[in-house]
Fold this sequence. Notes:
With 454 residues, the protein is of the alpha/beta class.
Amino acid sequence: xxxxxxxxxxxxxxxxxxxxxxxxxxxxxxxxxxxxxxxxxxxxxxxxxxxxxxxxxxxxxxxxxxxxxxxxxxxxxxxxxxxxxxxxxxxxxxxxxxxxxxxxxxxxxxxxxxxxxxxxxxxxxxxxxxxxxxxxxxxxxxxxxxxxxxxxxxxxxxxxxxxxxxxxxxxxxxxxxxxxxxxxxxxxxxxxxxxxxxxxxxxxxxxxxxxxxxxxxxxxxxxxxxxxxxxxxxxxxxxxxxxxxxxxxxxxxxxxxxxxxxxxxxxxxxxxxxxxxxxxxxxxxxxxxxxxxxxxxxxxxxxxxxxxxxxxxxxxxxxxxxxxxxxxxxxxxxxxxxxxxxxxxxxxxxxxxxxxxxxxxxxxxxxxxxxxxxxxxxxxxxxxxxxxxxxxxxxxxxxxxxxxxxxxxxxxxxxxxxxxxxxxxxxxxxxxxxxxxxxxxxxxxxxxxxxxxx
Length: 454
Ligand code: TYM
């Protein structure tokens, strides 16, 4: 468990501070396009303040009580990300737990903006967590690849690049281990049409230029595609966008909500979506947010696919991982071995330790490492060695699975087809937990299992 339950691991600053744009103090800024913990008066980059962010965004921290309920309703010990405050905040997660308890349908929705040929280990965090949620809830999962978003947003990117990245990223995502029977992956360039496009237009009609400016910090220089895209990412939150999965009668499918696992940078899209969903007679999506896997340099920014030395990529070799950690991972240790033995290291500032909180499953081992490092019984080199071992293991395991992902498999995941899922095998009889009104809603939604045919 983290020292302070519900608290994300502390990030630190330092070497990237040299790249800070100016010495003027600046507030932290988190949008889908910009993650910065802010800058103090001396120009030093600050760590992201996640407590402040929850307040600014109006989200809710994941409390120990909610975790207990999660465990009770699903019968599963919470994932290490939940236990350690890495998945730290949510919107309406209780409503999803209620539905699971009663055996009512819902689905999972997450995504990736294909901006590079390979994912980094930071991108793997929400996907790993989503896979776990899919196993726990046994529900359909929809993965959106926003090739249009990246094309609009990246001046040098051609549509052909974007499409190539989409194919490679889809294979990486499949390599995480999703179940093809329950998972639909789509690219916007391919799938935008029909019922999905109708929902995009419904949403676009309600989102004003003013609200996009305020939410994303866009100005008159942003292109109209970037403004419009906000509606596209939202429209995947509605089951009516996927008649091949949920059935083609919107009166039946519109009350099926989704749960969106993502890092908190994506929340602004869904704040807009939630604002308008009920006016469109849809359910608001629920969200569950993670913190960012920090850059190797450890300041208030996330790993970035466009800064090679900030990230460990899922394509990196064991040697590249070793060299990057040894050379760039910011250390919370002391300057000399003597001092380290005397004073101990700061795990909250130490990138190698922070990475272990994400990738090392065993709570006891993590605690032993924390204790030894903080007491000066472990030196920085040893800690980095442990981090290298676990990261190499994680990336090698991924690469093994990725090698087996064929073009045929990718086409299967991306084919427009029905899905099969089980839902909660032992729902609590509805009459025990539900009042009459809610019962009616369940009947409207149809059965939770199999294809919802009309
Ligand atoms: P993208 O490609 O920027 O990021 C993909 C997913 O990875 C998360 N993420 C991280 N998580 C932890 N540590 C990091 N360092 C880190 N960097 C990125 C992101 O939050 C995201 O969950 N517009 C989206 C694509 C999208 C989407 C969605 C994402 C469409 N619909 C629904 C999540 C949920 C994008 O460009 O993601």
